[in-house]
Amino acid sequence: MDYTSSDPDVHGYVFHGYVAEPTGYGDAARGYIHALHETGLQLSIVDLGRRRPVSDPLISSLLGRRIIPSLHLCHTMAPLLPDMGMPLSQVVALTAWETERIPKSWEDGLVGVREVWVPCSHNANVFARQTSVPVFRLPHPYLPQPADANDDISGISSRLSLKPDDFVFFSILEWQERKCPLGIIRAFLEAFCHETDVVLVIKTLFRDSRLLTRVGRAALGAIERCTHSGLRARVKVVTDMWPERLLQALFKRGSCYVSLHRGEGWGYPLFNAACSGTPVIATAYSGPLDYLDAEHHNLVRYRLVPVTQKYVYFSQDMLWADPDISHAAELMRYVYENREEALCRAKSVAGALRDKFSAHAVGKMAADRLSILARS
Fold first, then answer.
1. Do the beta carbons of residue 141 and residue 358 sit within 8 Å?
2. Is residue 308 a contact partner of residue 177, using CB atoms and an 8 Å limit?
3. Does any domain span residue 5?
4. Scanning 57, 96, 233, 291, which has the fewest C-beta atoms within 10 Å of its C-beta?
5. pTM of the shown model
6. Residue 20 predicted with pLDDT over 80
C-alpha cells in the first residue's frame, strides 16, 4: 500500500505522538503505528517530540501526510490534550499511568475526549474508576527485533569487558526512583559476594544531566561498600547514548532482564525480554502482569507504600510498589544457579506472547474498535 500520496480526499486517522524518541512513549507510539499500518488503515503522523534519534522508514513516510481525519489518535500525557488545538470530541487519547490512581490534572485533561485507550488491565481499572470517559484496553504490540543484532554482540562484550562465560543480569531504564535502579544494584550485591562470572549491566539515560553526578556517587558508594567488605561483584552503569543496534545486542548477550519497578503502564524493555524468551525478574505489580506470570517468570514480592519521587504529576497520597530487595536477590541467585531451567520456562511461553501481542493482533483490536466508534 502506498502511503506517500498527498491526495487530500483520502479519509483516515491522524496519529500524534513522540514517534522518534528513545523513551517508553516513543516505543509505544512506534509500535501502535506499525500495528495500525498492518490493518491497512490510512494514517498521517504528527511528531510531538523535539528529539529524533530513532529512525523508522514507515513513520518517516507518513509524517505530515494530507488526509481528512476521521479521528485524532493522541498518544501523550492527558494534561496536554486540551492545548493540542483540535475538538476533543474527535480525540481518542492513548496514555498510561503507573500508580493506583491518576492525578486530578489527568482527570481534567480527559474531559470531553471520545475515548481513552490504555495498555493494561491495571490502567483500565484505574481510569474507569476515576473518569466518566469510556476506557478501552489496547496492549502494546511486540515488534520483532532486527536479525542483524548478533553482529554487535562481540562489540558489546568488548565494550563492557565481558568474558564469554559471564552470566549477565541487565536492565534498560531512565534513572528515576520509580524504576528503582539502586534497588537493582542492592539486590545484585546481596545475591553475589565472591562470584567472578556474574555481571550487572544497567543501561540508563537521564532527563536532567545534573543527576549524573549524584547517581554516580550513589552507585559507586554501594559498590565500594561491597568491595571494602572483601566482595568482588561487578556492576556496570552505562550512561552514554547507544544506537538501537547496540541495545538489541545487549538483549542478545544478556542472560536475565531485571526490573524492580515501582509501577509501570507497560514496561517495553521488560516486555521485549519476555517476548524474546529471556528469563526476567520483575516486581509483581501493575502493567507487566498482563504479560508476565509466576509459572514462566520470576516475580518479586512487594508492598504498597506512598509515592516519594518528586515529579509534577506525583503526590504523596498516591501509592506504588516497594519491591522486596531480599526476595529479588533470592530470585537473582536462583536464576543464576538454575539458568537452564529458567531459560526453558521463559522460552516455553515466549512464542505465545509474540502471537498474542503481535502487530497484526493488536492492530486488529484497534481497527475493530475504531470501526465501532465510527458506527456510533
1. yes
2. yes
3. no
4. 57
5. 0.91
6. yes
